[in-house]
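Margin note from the TA: students keep mixing up input and output lines. Inputs are the sequences; the output is the structure of the whole complex. Example:
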Amino acid sequence: AQSVSQHNHHVILSEAASLELGCNYSYGGTVNLFWYVQYPGQHLQLLLKYFSGDPLVKGIKGFEAEFIKSKFSFNLRKPSVQWSDTAEYFCAVNSGGYQKVTFGTGTKLQVIP
Amino acid sequence: DAGVIQSPRHEVTEMGQEVTLRCKPISGHNSLFWYRQTMMRGLELLIYFNNNVPIDDSGMPEDRFSAKMPNASFSTLKIQPSEPRDSAVYFCASSLGYEAFFGQGTRLTVV
């Protein structure tokens, strides 16, 4: 069975600081990987996705993630965060088949002005 | 497309009452997911359908919960009888390939 681990539950950063959120998955086969963002009071929205090809994926709002197959990781990064990035971030994995998407427990990011 | 549409957006009900949450997936999508989100447990997958057929309902907490998908454009999640611990935000999502698109959610409060 596939699973996703997000080790940081709550991260607090000052504006302009760099961000890296960890995500590890467990599944031995081909995977599709996602990062979703949930702004306060809103639904989950896709930030970026990886299916194949270049392991460095660029998403919206300056976010990027790198797929490292040997480490089963898909960490999310942003060079300089803004107050508006305050949200909860979810890593997710899908291993094809019936397209079940498994989510991590989420990381709450708080950016202090 | 209007996206995934859920109704109602908010529901307040008394313990013991039946609650029905509704979801209209994006037209053409063939997978539908019901999630529950709480502060304590985070985002939990309750059940998902593929081509209107329930594929995995192992996340459904107990027999009080049931979900149906009578056709490709409509699904319901029913709780009967409801309990205060069912209070949560319930999200519906749909997918065609691999990316899931989420609805705005239904905030359920059972008092």
